[in-house]
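explain this:

___
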Amino acid sequence: MSLDHFLRSKPLYYDKIDLSRMPRAYNLVKKYLNPGRIIHLVGTNGKGSTGRILAELLRSSGFEVGHYSSPHILEFNERIWIDGHDISDSGLERAHEKLYGLLPEEVSDSLSYFEYTTLLALVAFEGLDFVVFEAGLGGEFDATSVAERELSVITPIGLDHQAFLGDTIEEIASTKLRCMARCTVVAPQPEEKIYSIADSIAAQRGSRLVFVKDFDAQRIKKIGEVCKKRGWPKFLAQNAATAIAAAEEILGKRIDPEALEGVVLRGRFEKVAPNVILDVGHNLLAAEAVAGALEGEKPVLVYNALEDKDAEGILKTLAPHVSGLELIDIENARVMDKKAVIAAAERAGLSVGRFDGVRKDRNYLVFGSFAVAEAFLKRENEA
């Protein structure tokens, strides 16, 4: 059975997750895996950009590197990046054939879409020097946490996926931080209490913490200057500093910020056209970062949301920085009811229209989720 057919048989979302299923499957195959030294990324925001920057920095230092991220925008292959390229279709099929042969059929069939994909990535990364391994929505119980990691990287933590992770920052931060490795790099955090939670868990686990907020001011300035030349806003410069801190810890050497020049980021405040910025952010913390990065003429917001998101909070955050909202149709089983999105926009003081394509005389911000990015890019590519 082809990988595409096999994955289509699996639901993308679960109301409840069997936390014992992935460890059992991993224990069956781990002796056959050799993916290289694993760097585990956990957090609410910035995992994708921090991970790709880190992977590129390691690659520019002469190492063979893999980067596992999720979800994808247009093609599943985007999730498994090896030495500068998304994995090929044939590479995916080889990895699937090997993994499916290693696991008992009933185990393969029982795994979720994300769980099977996580193991698939470990197979595909055979023989690499380093793997940048991005968690899904959790930390302590995330499918990616089964693999032995040498370094953990904690990106900014905020409220998201409360149904699985808890209703408070304390609960969410704790479940994410409890997966920390012997050494853990902690990005600048939106709330001070996260640092004390990290200190407490590190003391229990005997882990060493590296706080990016303690970076030398001159180095932060230099990183910011390089990022500004790239057209990256402040939040991406912060993610770049976190990636540099992680690269320095794993390599044991100083990283020149000029190495950032070769990094390509997809869907992260990306200028996909002269008048269009696309960002795959989808929660309040991401909205705050994007709002702080918008300058000049207020763009039209192209938006939609999944039903578990705080659409009203997100739109109230973005409202002072955009000129109105155009609702884009997305194909997703968890899409928020259109009337609920419109009501949230109106409460945020935004005019609402339907997205019918990009006009050359207007600026646009495409924001809301990977599903929004996918719908927008497909529409514009077909136009």
Summary: The mean pLDDT is 93. Residues 3-262 form a domain with the UDP-N-acetylmuramoyl-L-alanine:D-glutamate ligase fold (CATH 3.40.1190.10).
